[in-house]
Write a structure and sequence with these properties.
Number of helices: 3
Distance between the termini: 18 Å
Largest sheet: 3 strands, antiparallel
Radius of gyration: 20 Å
Strand content: 15-25%
Shape: globular
């Protein structure tokens, strides 16, 4: 996934994504558009309290479109929204989960934290949902990410030492 970020200041707080202005960026700089027609338009879709800047600041999740209003190829939310808004799907109660997995690397050697440099840890048994400094490497970062999601109002149902679960 290739996520991007921009910051913008508005004259007054706005929390409804429908009332936020569209914005743009140069898609040729990100490999999402050709140089001769590179403008990508951001359509605000959802807002969350900003857990980093706090106060009245918000994070805005956007979909990306061409100037002609067509979703760019990496805008997978477009097709998902069509599916989830279909009357047959709305009549159901679909269950699905999104797992966000990541690996924290040591800065200087680009090797996972907690692993012996150039080597591999033992079987996952003691590490899966483990506790303690010798098993739960990077727990402070994972807990900070969890707290940021809760502050932002993201519907996260839990974390463990192997997987963060978001609904």
């Amino acid at each position: 996934m290739d996520l991007r970020r921009k910051a913008r200041t508005l004259p007054a707080p706005v929390y409804d994504p429908k009332k936020l202005p569209k914005w743009n960026y140069d898609g040729s700089s990100t490999g999402q558009a050709l140089g001769e027609d590179s403008e990508v338009i951001l359509y605000p879709q959802a807002t969350f309290k900003d857990p980093f800047r706090r106060g009245k600041n918000i994070l805005v999740m956007c979909d990306a479109y061409t100037p002609a209003g067509e979703p760019i190829p990496t805008n997978n939310r477009y097709n998902a929204a069509k599916i989830f808004s279909h009357p047959q799907v709305l009549a159901e109660e679909p269950w699905y989960g999104i797992e966000k997995e990541y690996t924290l690397l040591k800065k200087d050697v680009k090797w996972p934290i907690g692993w012996p440099t150039g080597g591999y840890p033992g079987p996952q048994g003691p590490y899966y949902c483990g506790v303690g400094a010798d098993k739960a490497f990077g727990r402070d970062i994972i807990d900070s990410q969890y707290k940021a999601c809760l502050y932002a109002g993201i519907n996260i149902i839990g974390i463990n030492g192997e997987v963060n679960q978001v609904t």
